[in-house]
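C-alpha cells as discussed.
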C-alpha cells in the first residue's frame, strides 16, 4: 500500500511520456507532409514554366526570325514594313515576357538548344546535322554552350542564306570545342577575313571567357562561316 502513490505516479508519468512521443511523432509527420506538399507544388510550377518556355518560347523565336526576314524583304512597301515592324515588336515583347516567367526555373542547355535549332533549320529547308560527343556537361557549361548555339543559329538566319549547318562538340588536348558552321557566308564577307564583327558576339564572348575559354567567328576560303567556342575540358568533369 505505501508504494501505491508511486505506482500511480509512474503510470501517469509513463502516460505523459507516451503522449509526448505520439504528439512529437504527429508533429514531425505533419511537417513532413507539408514539406512534401510544398515540394510537389514547386515542382509543378517549375514543370509549367519549362513547358511555357519550351513550347511558347520556341514558336515565338521562330515568329521573330520570320517576321524580321519578311520586314527586310518588304522594301518599297512602307505600309507593309510598318505593320511588320509592329508585329516584330509585339513578338519580341511576348518572348521577353515568356523568358521572364520561366527565369530561374529553366536553364538553357546545349542538348536542348541544339535539338531546337535542328528543328527550326529543318523547317526552313536547311539541312542540319548535330553531333555532341561529350554528354553529361555541368549545367553552367551546358548553358553557355547552348547560348552559343542559339545565337549562332539566330545570326545565321538573319545574315546568311545557308543550305547546310553543322553543330558539333568535340574534345581534344584537354579542351572542349563547339562549332556552329554553315555554308551561307554572305557575299559581302571576304573569306579568310578572320574575326567577325558584331555587337551580339560581345556578350557571348564574355560568357565563354568566364569559363576560361575563347570564342571566334571566321569566314573560311571554303565558303563556310564558323562560330567556335572552346572551354577547358576540366569544366566537364
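Sequence:
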Amino acid at each position: 500500500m505505501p508504494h501505491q502513490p508511486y505506482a500511480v505516479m509512474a503510470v501517469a508519468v509513463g502516460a505523459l511520456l507516451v503522449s509526448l512521443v505520439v504528439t512529437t511523432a504527429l508533429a514531425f509527420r505533419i511537417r513532413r507532409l507539408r514539406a512534401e506538399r510544398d515540394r510537389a507544388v514547386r515542382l509543378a510550377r517549375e514543370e509549367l514554366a519549362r513547358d511555357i518556355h519550351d513550347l511558347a518560347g520556341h514558336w515565338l523565336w521562330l515568329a521573330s526570325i520570320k517576321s524580321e526576314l519578311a520586314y527586310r524583304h518588304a522594301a518599297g512597301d512602307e505600309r507593309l514594313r510598318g505593320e511588320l515592324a509592329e508585329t516584330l515588336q509585339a513578338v519580341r515583347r511576348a518572348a521577353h515576357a515568356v523568358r521572364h516567367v520561366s527565369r530561374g526555373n529553366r536553364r538553357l542547355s546545349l542538348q536542348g538548344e541544339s535539338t531546337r535549332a535542328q528543328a527550326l533549320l529543318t523547317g526552313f529547308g536547311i539541312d542540319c546535322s548535330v553531333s555532341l560527343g561529350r554528354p553529361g556537361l555541368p549545367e553552367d557549361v551546358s548553358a553557355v554552350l547552348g547560348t552559343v548555339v542559339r545565337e549562332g543559329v539566330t545570326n545565321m538566319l538573319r545574315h546568311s542564306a545557308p543550305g547546310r549547318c553543322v553543330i558539333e562538340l568535340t574534345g581534344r588536348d584537354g579542351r572542349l570545342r563547339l562549332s556552329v558552321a554553315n555554308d551561307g557566308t554572305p557575299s559581302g564577307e571576304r573569306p579568310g577575313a578572320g574575326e567577325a564583327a558584331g555587337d551580339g558576339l560581345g556578350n557571348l564572348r564574355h560568357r565563354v571567357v568566364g569559363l576560361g575559354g575563347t570564342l571566334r567567328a571566321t569566314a573560311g576560303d571554303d565558303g563556310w562561316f564558323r562560330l567556335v567556342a572552346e572551354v577547358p575540358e576540366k569544366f566537364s568533369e
